[in-house]
Amino acid sequence: MNARGKPRICVVTAFPELVGNYLSSSVLGRGINAGLLDVSAVDIRDFAAGAYRQIDDYSYGGGGMVLMPGPLKAALDSISRREERFVVYPSPQGVRLGQELVEDLRGIAETKRLVIVCGHYEGVDERFVKRDVDLEISFGDFVLTGGELPALAIIDALSRLIPGVVGKYEAVSEDSFFSGMLDSPHYTRPENFEGEEVPHVLLSGDHDAVNRFRRKEAIERTLSRRPDMMARAGIMPYTGGGFYVLQIHHPALDKSGRESTTAVTGMDLHDIARACRTYGVKKYLVATPLKSQRELIKKVAAHWTSGYGAEFNPDRAEAMRKIKTSDTLRRALEWIESKEKTFPLTIATTAKERSGTTSWVTLKERVLREGRPVAFIFGTGWGLGEETLVSSDAVMSPISGGAGGYNHLSVRSAVSITLDRFFGFR
After folding, report:
1. Predicted local confidence at residue 167, as pLDDT
2. Residue span of the structural domain in which 33 resides
3. Domain ends where: 112, 138, 159?
4. Measured on CA atoms in the order 408, 411, 416, 422, is the torsion positive or negative?
5. Are 114 and 6 spatial neighbours (Cβ–Cβ below 8 Å)?
6. What is the structure's pLDDT at 50?
7. In the chain, how many domains are there?
8. Is 180 part of a structural domain of the chain?
9. Catalytic option among 122, 136, 156, 393
């Protein structure tokens, strides 16, 4: 197997000149010439028998022309051994191409040779597909005359992920779909075109204001045009306020449904702090009325944020610095308000079915629309008390694993799942 390195791609086609002309032009051509990726084309006809170099024949049972398996197999074998290649076939029957799949293909091309087989007419012989194709990819519910355009689209999309191919990598990270959101609109000269002005903020020279404008436009476009994208969008870069995780130890319900005070655990502190650091949460606040518990929290955090603990594991130190204690939920929320200059949107969580809950996807949309800081409130023991649930701005629907009514995740797991749903996109 090829050591991980420069992506290698080969297109198997009956029209190598078409592929070559595109590959030699523009940004993609410069990337290939600079040695950032290796792209070649193989002519199927070079492996066809007879004077006419026939590569297709009539479909058994009636229908149009189908590419023959023999020339295709011979072309593949001329490129590399079976175990050293990954074969993609653009086909209406394939999986839908998305940004995540493009990234996967880039990784494959760095370890094996990515071979893209271009079909024609009615397609290719099914025996070839079953034996030699690793993945069929669809670009949508429509049919093209050949696979060259999809092949070039795959190469173009993949090449943008290779540092140096696109001049500024920031341009890639701001593309539509890269973070799960649509891109903002773009403008160029003239400033006035047939009576329509470029938005003034883009001419202001205020970099922060321009970024706010672009985030707002990206949000509005995504919510109005592609609300289906919310489930996989990482919204952290598009929000105006900070995000906070609150773990409440009082009032917490006991097994009988009575209010009680629960104990702090070291596993919660370590795992939730690491989740908060991973997803960019500003602070992890632990609320308990017991002074001894607050002192214990500070002692555990201090071990990892100073002295030997910080030197031994700097990554853990970063996470444990996220921890802050409070004696009540109200004081924790007031502390957030003092930092953010506005009261946060409070989202309570529950593991129990109840009326009036809101799905996490809908809450993501609300967070984007309102642009406020957000406090995710998690209970301990047997959950948050009714007063906390009622006083929150929203209660998120319980996490469901799809395995009946069993729902007894640890608070550590619930925090990680929630943060990933809101902020994870890679």
Report:
1. 66
2. 8-159
3. 159
4. positive
5. no
6. 86
7. 3
8. no
9. 122
User: Which of these is catalytic: 136, 175, 318, 393?
Assistant: 175
Query: Token pair for residue 281?
Result: 């949460």
The question of whether 92 is a catalytic residue gets the answer: yes
Same-domain pairing of 413 and 313 = yes
Q: Which of 92, 103, 226, 366 is catalytic?
A: 92
Annotated active-site residue in 160, 215, 274, 421: 160
CATH number of the domain to which 309 belongs:
3.40.1280.10
- 215 catalytically annotated: no
Mean pLDDT by 10 residues, the chain (426 residues): 79 97 89 95 95 93 94 97 97 94 96 97 95 97 94 96 78 63 93 96 96 93 93 89 96 95 97 98 98 98 93 96 98 98 97 96 96 97 96 97 85 98 86
CB count within 10 Å of CB 95 equals: 11
62 and 134 in a single domain? The answer is yes
